Amino acid sequence: MENDTILKVYFAPQHFHHLIGLQKLKDINEVRKSQLNNTIRIFKNIMAQKITIDNLKGSKYFHDIESRLKHFKQINTIVEFERIIIDFDSSLINTVITADYILFKKSNDNMFLNLFLTSDAANNGFQIPRTFLPDPTDYYTYKQKELKILSITKVPSRTKHRK
Q: What is d(CA 50, CA 61) in angstroms, rounded to the nearest whole number?
């Protein structure tokens, strides 16, 4: 970043559930969290294609996550992010979201793609993506302290799902 800060971002499988909004699909048992169905199991079932997009489309709440799903593949190319919000201040807007940083960029269809990051002391200070919200406006970034990202380097993971 412009201020010489270095962030290490780690995509944790257990956060995938919330990133794409599966908690909103209350009528799909396969993605509902329970003692027997935790977020890692749900992630593994998605990776194994035991849960598919067709399963998710069967929810009457699918419209609540449709934009996230449509744009999620664009955060996979994290190296394309050019701007970052540091010290995100949720009091500037009406939200319960907490985050330390927001990586954001505009999508091909002019949506603001907001990837909310929080510190994870258990993972050596890595930033963990917790929430992903596409928005047609700059609602989450407006009046926030914004910096330019100078460079992003993708480091190969040591485990199958760690990227």
A: 20
